[in-house]
Model the fold of this input.
Amino acid sequence: MNPMSLFPEIILIVTGLLMLLLEAFAKRLRPGAWILALAGTVLSGWAEWNQAPGSFFMDSIHTSLATQGLNTLLIAGTFLAILFAPALLKRDGVVRGEFYTLILWGTVGMIWMVRGSNLLSVLIGLELLSVCLYVLTAYYRDTDVAPEASLKYFLMGAFASAILIFGAAFYYGLTGNILILKIPSDGTTFTIVIFFLLAAFAFKMAVFPVHGWAPDVYQGSASPVTTYLSTLPKVAAIVVFIRLFTLAGGDVPIKILGAVCILTMIMGNLVALAQRDVKRMLAYSGIAHMGYLLIGVVAGTSEAYTAIFFYLPVYVVMTLTAFALIGFLGRGEEEPHTLRDFGGLGFSRPFSAFVLAACLFSLTGIPPFAGFMAKFALFKAGLNAHYTGLVFIGILNSIISIYYYIRVVYYLYMKSPEDRDLPAGDWRVGFASLTALLFLLFFGVFPDRLLIMAQNIAGTFLGGW
Amino acid sequence: MIFAPLAGAFLLLFFPRTSETAQRIFSLLVSVVVFAAGVVLFLRFEPNASFQFEENLLWISKFNVHYHLAVDGISLLLIILTALLLPVVILAGWRSISTHVRAYHVAFLVLEAAVIGAFSALDLFLFYIFWELLLIPMYLIIGVWGGKRRIYAAVKFFLFTAVGSFLMFFAILYLVVQHHAATGILTFQLADYVNGDLPTGAAMLCFLAFALAFGIKVPLVPVHTWLPDAHVEAPAGGSIILAGVLLKLGSYGFIRFAIPLFPRAYTASLPWLVVLAVVGITYGAWVSFAQKDVKKLVAYSSVAHLGFVMLGLFAMTSLGVTGSVIQMVNHGLSTGALFLMVGFIYDRTHTRMMEDYGGLAAVMPVFFALFLLVTLSSVGLPGLNGFIGEFLVLAGAFPVFKTATIIATSGVIFAAVYLLYLVRKVFFGAVNTATLEGLQDLSIREIICVLILGIFIVWIGVYPSTFLSRIEPAVQEFLKNYQLWVAP
Done:
């Protein structure tokens, strides 16, 4: 029993509560709410980084280098998402404090998913996250699409949670305990249990064949929400997914996952080709990227985990920034974000357009951006583990993806501008974009430090936690 | 030399948007400084040693990637060609580029850095980074400042090149991983992979991946189709760099990477490659003759000229390879100059159709004189650079592939036919329209542009030893190694 071990979560929860109180009693302070939210994430990130490793609350949660690193990533991602949000919320006239409360509490849920060492705490984390996301998705309740997206997400998400609970109950009934690491790797029954559990997290990662909700939900929810929704929950889910997958023994699960991986890549990329709405296209690109990551999971070597933990922060930064800038440069949340809207913005909004283009090139995997290094590390790990075919399909898919990513770039730079109002500049968006650009460039050219960190995380991760 | 243009591009970003003249002057200064550095490099280069001015730093320790640069006689000339063409490009766009001036120059400076980097990299990873890095600026140059169908051309360029290079990337990865598994050493240094002992099938596939990437850049028939579009739609400066330098990256890639890495696979596929080169020569020539668009004609003539470059290379004789390298430089000068001058005339009349011209010799005598010089160099008139290159290539290739060389020689004749046809259409005959009558002759700036290239055209034509003496030792060594690799 050590309450100190919950410090990061407590800070986030208290910050969220404070904001609800402010919202109720000091409405004048609304426009500054984001500062408080940022302060909360900074404090919490600092607390997370300074935690002592160990196991707490009767093995409910765990702290290790791996959880610290991943949670810091989640908190940092939250920071970036919050930094992008106020300009968009202000533009759309929905500045309310509870937006940040929901985001912060959702992050608490994700932290629990990463730290949870028994199925119950993981489940609680997942549910806390999901409830926050359902509400966030419908946050722009006056638009037509948001409530629809939220309902879709809720129905599908509830179903996925039910599967998870079913798997957990099955396991408890068989063995009388709920500790994740105690799940034995042999026996058909346990393989089935693990499949139930995996399916639930695969849903949150939006991999084939449980990806169907993602495009609708990403497109329907407002951009400041999509930034958060499309990146961080995937990180938390894939961490739990990997943890469970390493428990499943034998060849069969690997073969099945290999097939899922191939189908996810191909489906994501081919369907993305056909999209006219940029947000929807990016949703499919996100699916494709999860496919690339699964190559690493299939390979399963420590090199592959290093690559995955390098890929995750890069994926978060590039996708989050791309969604945020598309929201920022688009016409507003009522309208679809068609390619046409982005015509000529490269010269009328040079900086944000350039950062958006950089994110897209990075997603394609073109140097000198970090996306290239991430893909390189991942494919190399795949080849080293003798999954040549899988990596080759990954490369072919990257080739397909070039087309739809650079299509946005040519609208930005080569088409004549549409007759429309330009977004007003905003220093918070500018600062966040600059941070993202520097991140992508720096780790694209000097990836060593992040790689070493990823390697340490992979080391502790494989060593149990 | 790599960092100077990059730093220049970065500083240029801080110039105020309206100070266009200042931006132009600054970029010109940067490119001239880079060229001066190139000249110093050339003078301090020792003709008989192999790789020089080596820089080898550990870059990414996790992957053991090195920042490894060095030049030999082959890359030296191509680097200097790049540095020479850039000031010309900036001067050429002085008046004709009036939109987004700052971005235009930033793109060109970044491009220059990437190209020089690619020509001097001796680490597979580093080479790939530079190779890909030049895609983005070139894509933007064609797409933003190009002609009517620029977006189509830009996307086609990007897709063709990227498909090739992603497959090459896969081959590099495969090589590295195999090597790592076999020896336990993780390395990306080119020297560690030369004539590696891959199984024949795998080596063949990897060679094909490299050959595809480089073949698309060269371009070899049948993957040349992006070239006419890209050339026609690109702004004059873009065409000059594209023809002058980017295409050379393909043939250079064969010499530096594809052949040393997989000499046996290369020898096995040699007959096919020779056929492709000869088809390129004749097909390029025929199609050029059929063109009505001046720029397209020059673009297809590029396909034919690069066919000569490849033929000389494939001959693998000392004469042939030397000729091939000097022909790379020649093509950069002559075709670059042709595109430059077509750009000048297009700026005045806004048409590229041959039928819209006629009788220009009387209206623009200076232009006519310079154009004739450049055309004749491209045709291969003795005394000018084209002759040296083509002669060496044909002389070097003849002992090895007799039939192919005879067919290729017909390409020289065709080149004379279609280029002189072009000259006749544009410069002789009656002045058809009133617009043509009122045309101004070249300005001082334009004359300087052409003369910079013209000096080298004559220099190589009259006294090629200055350059040949630098190339030959490198070629000798290349061939000597090749003989060792393929020896049973």
Notes: Residues 3-486 of chain B form one domain.
